[in-house]
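Sample intake sheet
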Amino acid sequence: MAGLPFELDTEVALHLVDAFLSACGDPDARKFLSPLFSEVPRGGQTLCFRSAEEPAGGFSSWLITCAPDGVQVTRNLPTTSVADATVVAAPSDLLLVVKGRLRPEKPRMTVLGSRPLLDLWLSHAIA
């Protein structure tokens, strides 16, 4: 199946993105994340994952804050929100990025800010 297009319904893809990113902020779910997750920086760095398409309902953006007391996840940010690293992509591509199946690269998506922070997060958050 490698190389075949991957396209999910917008709401389904964003629901799955939400489930994974929400788990990153839930201490009880961390045992299901990568063992490297404990090495994610905790200095207040922020990452934003944003859908390029608005769903009929549900969430379409997430702000990850790497706070000293743990990772915090905020949903549905204002479009004017700024983060240290941001990925904007179609819902299916966003799901593939947060699950480590697609590198965040142009032209399929927009990547802004600190690429080293984004790469570190993706390599440490994904099991």
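Comment: DSSP finds three helices and five strands in the chain. The longest strand covers residues 45-51.
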